[in-house]
Amino acid sequence: MDKQWTFIDTECLIRTGPMGTLSGYIGIEPEHPWWGQGCMDLDVDVVVHGGLTYASAQRPGTWGEDGLWWMGFDTAHNGDVVPEIEALLTKTGLLSDGVEGDVLRGERYVEQQVRILAAQAQAARG
Q1: Taking 90 as the threshold, does the pLDDT of residue 18 lie above it?
Q2: CB of 39 within 8 A of CB of 55?
């Protein structure tokens, strides 16, 4: 699944990763204070599901650059359902009924988190 849209002047993207989970990203322009910063390098605490896990000039899911700095998060953390891992554990008999309490983070949830991230990026613009 790929979904792209613009929210408060910020490019937004959701992609399905190889483990079957969704990841959310924003693309920021070179003038933005977060441009070129790593996930742990920001001077503010960015609040998003699981924290920032991606920061790169490479557009997520491609090998190319598009002039934006991409920052994002994934939904493969403790408490998240990771479909490919659960399928493997079920196939090998190590898991029979899923992991109690884990949640599969769907498109609606991830889009909400991307919008929250975009709003924080907008606030950082000053």
Answers
A1: no
A2: yes
Distance CA 98, CA 86 (A): 7
Structure tokens at 65: 């650059």
Residue 67 CB contacts under 8 Å (≥ 6 apart), including other chains: 29, 30
Structure tokens at 12: 């937004």
Please give the Cα distance from 72 to 54 (Å, whole number).
5
Please spell the DSSP secondary structure of 91-109, one letter per residue.
HTTS-SS--TT-B---HHH
| Cβ atoms 118, 34 nearer than 8 A | no
Among 54, 26, 49, 57, CA closest to 125: 26
Tell me the pLDDT tens digit for each residue of 61-78.
888 889 999 999 998 887
